[in-house]
Specification:
337 residues
Length: 337
């Protein structure tokens, strides 16, 4: 694939499921399904990653069979840093926690980040641009006298609103890898722009490297701002920040990346598959759960069998995991058994 190929071309990929080429019937079903996925969901997303990194996280050796990786990925999905066993132990915030101590920490981390100069490297220009256009959030969080004001405002919100505000500001901290939060983040970066995922996947790789991977997935309408961090548009549907006195940012540090920040990770129920290079071919490995759907499938959620979840996670570097209650959209965090 050339750099000029800025959109995915499913017709140009070798399509596989469980390592086998699709039959004509399976191809028809696949294309019918992806049309539904693109049409019936809020956002289609991509994440550029590395095979060697993911193999290590999933407890696999470099020479492990592709089958082992596929089976694990399509049961566990892709997860954020904070679910790994080995973490710095600094600035960790559980996905189901939103107390005063969390918001004190968020204020301090944002204050430190937004005051930081970043004199070297490409980040400098983007941070300067952010400061020029987002003066409201700069003025608020760079004034340490506002910390108690921040806590008092948060204290007037209900628990659901507190989670929304927490995620909104953590999203900003997550968007820059130099922040104090990034290494322990329960957020996972994706993009609506395929070319951005491609750049991250192939960064530092040789032309014919088989190390890059691109994950393909989506965010359902019903989980906008739940499975993903709310952007300013989604935020206004939930909370009037101006009325309660909290600042907003219209664009993050790198708006060209078109980031969609996921909470917890990319669940296998919303994972279409992944793209990899194999010799001269671009191979798209499809989530086998797609072929458990019928013609009446609505394109929103795959019927993933996670009965082997606890068995699979034992051999990985993940020390914890999360669940989402569909009735009230509440996350719960659990330690690995």
């Amino acid at each position: 694939m050339k750099n000029a190929d800025m959109i995915p071309n499913y017709y140009g990929y070798t399509l596989k499921v469980n390592g086998n080429d699709l039959s004509p019937e399976q191809r028809n079903h696949f294309f019918n399904c992806i049309n539904k996925v693109y049409r019936n969901n809020d956002k289609f997303i991509y994440r550029g990653d590395k095979k060697e990194k993911l193999y290590s996280i999933y407890g696999l050796e470099k020479d492990s069979l592709d089958e082992q990786f596929r089976d694990t990925l399509f049961i566990l999905g892709a997860k954020a840093n904070m679910f790994l066993t080995k973490l710095p132990g600094i600035n960790e915030i559980n996905i189901d926690t939103a107390g005063n101590n969390v918001f004190n920490l968020i204020f301090k981390m944002l204050s430190n980040l937004l005051k930081r100069e970043f004199p070297f490297g490409p980040i400098h220009g983007f941070v300067v641009g952010f400061r020029k256009r987002e003066t409201g959030i700069i003025d608020f969080f760079c004034n340490r006298g506002n910390e108690q004001v921040f806590i008092d405002i948060i204290g007037e919100l209900n628990p659901q609103q507190q989670i929304v505000v927490r995620d909104y500001y953590l999203g900003l901290l997550h968007h820059i890898s130099k922040s104090e939060y990034y290494a322990s983040s329960f957020l996972l970066s994706t993009s609506t722009d395929f070319s951005q995922a491609y750049k991250f996947a192939w960064r530092g790789e040789e032309k014919n490297s088989e190390n890059p991977l691109i994950l393909f997935g989506w965010v359902p309408y019903k989980y906008e701002g739940v499975l993903s961090v709310p952007d300013s548009r989604a935020l206004t549907k939930k909370i009037n920040m101006e009325t309660i006195g909290l600042p907003v940012y219209e664009k993050s540090f790198f708006p060209y990346q078109k980031e969609v920040t996921l909470k917890g990770g990319l669940l296998p129920h919303y994972l279409l598959g992944y793209l990899r290079k194999s010799q001269e071919d671009m191979v798209f490995e499809i989530n086998p759960a797609l072929f458990e759907t019928g013609n009446t499938w609505n394109g929103i959620e795959l019927p993933v069998d996670q009965s082997a979840f606890h068995q699979r996670i034992q051999n990985t570097l993940f020390g914890r995991y999360f669940t989402l209650c569909g009735e009230n959209n509440q996350f719960r965090q659990h330690e690995k058994m």
